[in-house]
Amino acid sequence: MYPKHFFERFWESEQKNQIFVGTAFDTNLDARFSVIDLVAKELGLDKAFRVGLDKEANSINDKIFDAIANSKMLIFDISDDSRKGHINENVIYELGIAHAIREPSDIVIIKKKTDQKCELPFDIQGININFFDNDLKNEDLKKIIKSAMENQEWHKSKRVRVAAESLDENGLMLMNSIGRRPIGFNHFNSSSFDYNIKTSVLRLVDLGIVRFAWAVEKKGWVEWAYHWTPFGYEVMKSMGLKQMTLEEFEKTPEYATVAKANDDFVKMKQEALGGKDESANAE
């Protein structure tokens, strides 16, 4: 799929807790990838991820685009491909896509030192590249990635800014009146909203700021609600809408009403299910 079309459709509202590794399909790089994977886990990420050889070229591209867009951190190894004797063209292409859609703090570039002068493409000669000797050392890479992660500010990204600029007055009202509440008190349904506000809710869904979640119970109980996404919280943060603590929310006039509604819902559900939570599905 063409990159622009992919990102317009499949940019997720929650980042994968992983490092995407842009590297050549070269078995000589397996040991280096293992170091990156270990460092990722030591820094609290789930794993390092790279796309392997696949018979379906389009499938490979989609996996790469998805990883570039939705991974928490990206590493590009622009060391010479041992099969070609120069930088792999596919890795440079992926790096270019990442530079177009991700923040500088999301991207780490590494390259193996060589005895000869490193010949880099003109367009990347001015960016920060981390050179290493023959072996990529765990501690050195760990310092580089940790420093990059500490400087990550998702709420300052262009994607967040575009979403904030795409809001209407009703969407802003919902974020300010409901989205700022503590988690557990800020989910909502739109059944009592008028048509205009319901339309704004759908707009928030399209922007990735809220998601629709549902559950179907074995005894026929169905429940649903809209929940704010991690991306939605970043949009609020970028706008200066500060999340309330539970203590702050308890002091607001809305707290008693919201708390009672939550308690009444729990009691009604327990009565319907005979005191048991028997979820069959949830999304």
Topology of this structure?
Elements: H1 3-10, E1 16-22, H2 30-42, E2 47-49, H3 57-70, E3 71-77, E4 80-81, E5 86-87, H4 89-101, E6 107-112, E7 130-132, H5 138-150, H6 158-165, H7 169-179, H8 195-207, E8 210-217, E9 222-228, H9 230-239, H10 246-250, H11 254-272, E10 279-282
Parallel strand pairs: 1-2, 1-3, 3-6, 6-7
Antiparallel strand pairs: 4-5, 8-9, 8-10
Helix pairs in contact: 1-3, 2-5, 3-4, 6-9
The rounded Rg comes to 23 Å
Order of helices and strands: HEHEHEEEHEEHHHHEEHHHE
Fold-level CATH name of the largest domain: Rossmann fold
The CATH superfamily of the largest domain bears the name Response regulator
Terminal CA distance reads: 27 Å
- Which stretches of 5+ consecutive residues score pLDDT under 50? 278-283
Major beta sheet, strand line-up: 2-1-3-6-7
Q: Strand tally, please?
A: 10
Estimate the global geometry from the Cα principal axes: elongated
Q: Which CATH class of the largest domain is shown? A: Alpha Beta
Largest sheet: 5 strands, parallel
Could you say which structural class the secondary elements and strand pairing correspond to? alpha/beta
CATH arch. level architecture of the largest domain:
3-Layer(aba) Sandwich
Share in β-strands: 15-25%
Number of helical runs?
Answer: 11
Q: How many domains, in number, for the residues?
A: 2
What is the mean pLDDT? 87
